[in-house]
Specification:
CATH architecture: 2-Layer Sandwich
Shape: elongated
Number of domains: 1
Structural class: alpha+beta
Helix content: 25-40%
CATH class: Alpha Beta
Radius of gyration: 17 Å
CATH topology: Macrophage Migration Inhibitory Factor
Order of helices and strands: EHEEEH
Length: about 80
């Protein structure tokens, strides 16, 4: 199913999450996404998963920074 000859034949998966996602959650995402591709017949060593933690101030939703759209209100 997967042919290893040739350059650029490996899947590279980018996962964008908000800053603060954390090392442990990123590790789980990397493991589980890799498993999906392995289950499809891609060799484990050929799968690359990159987790990008992006500040909410740099993530726009509906024309507004997520940091403003989802502002946390202080607890009383």
């Amino acid at each position: 199913m997967f042919k290893q000859s040739g350059v650029g034949k490996m899947p590279i998966i980018h996962v964008n999450v908000w800053e603060g996602f954390g090392k442990e959650k990123a590790k789980i995402v990397i493991q589980k996404i890799t498993k999906v591709f392995v289950d499809l017949g891609i060799p484990r060593q050929a799968v690359e998963v990159i987790v990008h933690e992006i500040p909410k101030s740099h993530w726009g939703i509906g024309g507004e920074p997520a940091s403003e759209k989802f502002e946390e209100t202080p607890s009383k």
